[in-house]
Design a protein that fits this description.
The protein is an all-alpha fold. It is 64% helix and 0% strand. The longest helix has 20 residues. It is globular and about 35 Å long.
Length: 121
Amino acid sequence: MAKSLFVKLLCMAIVCLVLGASSPKAEAITCGQVVNNLTPCITYILNGGIVPARCCNGVRSLLSQARTTPDRQAVCNCIKNTVSGMHYSNSNLNLAASLPRKCGVNIPYQISPSTDCSRVR
C-alpha cells in the first residue's frame, strides 16, 4: 500500500514538474515543489505516530514560499488534488489535516478534499 502511494506521488510530482516547467510564470509555486516538500510526511499520514522533523520543515518551507494569494491557492489546490486522488481513509485525512498544527504553523485553509481553494487569501 505504501509503495503504491509513493509511486503515485512520484508520478504526480513528475507530471507537475513537467507542467510547471512550461508555465510562463516561473516564480509561482509548482505542484512539484509542493509534493517535494510534503513527501517526508507520507509515513506520518499513513501510519500516524510522531511527525518527522523533515515533514515539518517541508510544511514550514511551503508556508514561507507561499507569499501571495495565487501561491497559497496553488499550494491548496495541489494538496487538495493529491488528497482527493489518493482515496485516503478518514483517519489518514485527519492525520493530514493535523500536520500544520503539529508542526506549529497556521495555514489559511483546511487540508481536505472539500476545501474551496478559490477562497484562500
